[in-house]
Backbone:
């Protein structure tokens, strides 16, 4: 199963990963706040992840690591 | 290529790619995507959604893939990417505004065994540094130039750039760029392709996953050309500036698709060493 790790404190909450996800399981967690003061991206349903790494490809800050 | 370092657990073994790796058989995950080693751990200062981060990563992935991190010298511009010397793990030089190709020329001639690349924005390369760019291209200096075109001056607060589109609203063109007084945008790739000097010129974009992958291939080719001594390789990357365009990051990516790419068509503009019998993408034809 694919495993996606977010370095949450580097995330700037731009949402490019949310647009790129073909399974639409990424969201910007509006209620959370990270060390930079942004709302970070997170995954709603890890079991649906196919490990395509589209999110990581579009992430400008190398927040996302994908294992498969 | 040997990729054993890609496994999450270090197990000594031979594998040629992630699909046939023995780790799969033992249920150990393979890393599909991680931060390239040619980038440092310094958090980038760019605005949320700025495509500079993506382009930095593509250059770093290329440096990793070619295994040249200890042998590469980057030249950074003045502009938003001025801090790029903090982000790349290779040696970096900070050039005067627009003069990165001139500095790179000196570095390459003094140290021909090193890989020299410049990373420049449109305010740097297409405005103040146009002379250095054109002359290093026509001399066919054996360097790689990564040109980030986001149609605006980012760092100084969103003024009109030579590459701003007709009608584009900026700080210094509040009613839209008027072509009667401000002229037309400069298509740098097309202009340089008219010269006999440069070896390779391509324009790519980073607005979606497919274009990011094509951009990575183009940047890899540009570095490979330098290693093979083919000469001046120029990659123009259509980028975004959500802050100064006044858009959200995803609106900015759509604006690239709807407005910028029609004005700046993607494709290979010049490839001196193209195999004429090869695939269509390398024959110098615009897509």
Residues:
């Amino acid at each position: 199963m694919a495993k996606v790790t977010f370095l949450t404190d580097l995330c700037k909450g731009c949402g490019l990963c949310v647009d790129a996800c073909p399974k639409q399981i990424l969201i910007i967690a509006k209620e959370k706040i990270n060390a930079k003061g942004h709302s970070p991206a997170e995954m709603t349903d890890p079991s649906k992840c196919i490990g395509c790494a589209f999110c990581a490809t579009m992430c400008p800050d190398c927040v996302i690591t994908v294992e498969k | 290529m040997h990729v054993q370092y890609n496994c999450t657990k270090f197990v000594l073994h031979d594998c040629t790619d992630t699909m046939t790796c023995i780790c799969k058989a033992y249920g150990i995950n393979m890393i599909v995507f991680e931060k390239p080693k040619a980038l440092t751990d310094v958090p980038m200062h760019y605005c949320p959604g700025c495509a500079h981060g993506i382009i930095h990563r593509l250059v770093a992935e290329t440096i990793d893939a070619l295994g040249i991190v200890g042998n590469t010298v980057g030249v950074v511009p003045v502009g938003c990417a001025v801090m790029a010397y903090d982000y790349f793990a290779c040696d970096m030089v900070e050039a005067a505004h627009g003069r990165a190709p001139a500095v790179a020329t000196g570095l390459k001639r003094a140290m021909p065994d090193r890989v020299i690349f410049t990373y420049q924005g449109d305010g740097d390369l297409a405005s103040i540094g146009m002379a250095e760019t054109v002359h290093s291209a026509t001399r066919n200096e054996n360097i790689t130039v990564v040109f980030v075109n986001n149609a605006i001056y980012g760092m100084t607060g969103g003024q009109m750039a030579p590459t701003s589109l007709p009608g584009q609203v900026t700080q210094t063109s509040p009613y839209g760029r008027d072509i009667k007084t401000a002229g037309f945008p400069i298509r740098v790739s097309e202009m340089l392709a008219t010269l006999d000097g440069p070896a390779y010129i391509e324009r790519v974009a980073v607005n979606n996953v497919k274009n990011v992958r094509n951009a990575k291939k183009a940047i890899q080719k540009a570095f490979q050309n330098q290693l093979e001594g083919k000469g001046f390789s120029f990659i123009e990357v259509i980028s975004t500036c959500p802050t100064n365009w006044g858009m959200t990051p995803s609106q900015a990516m759509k604006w690239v698709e709807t407005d910028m790419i029609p004005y700046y068509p993607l494709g290979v503009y010049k490839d001196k060493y193209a195999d004429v019998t090869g695939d269509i993408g390398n024959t110098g034809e615009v897509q």
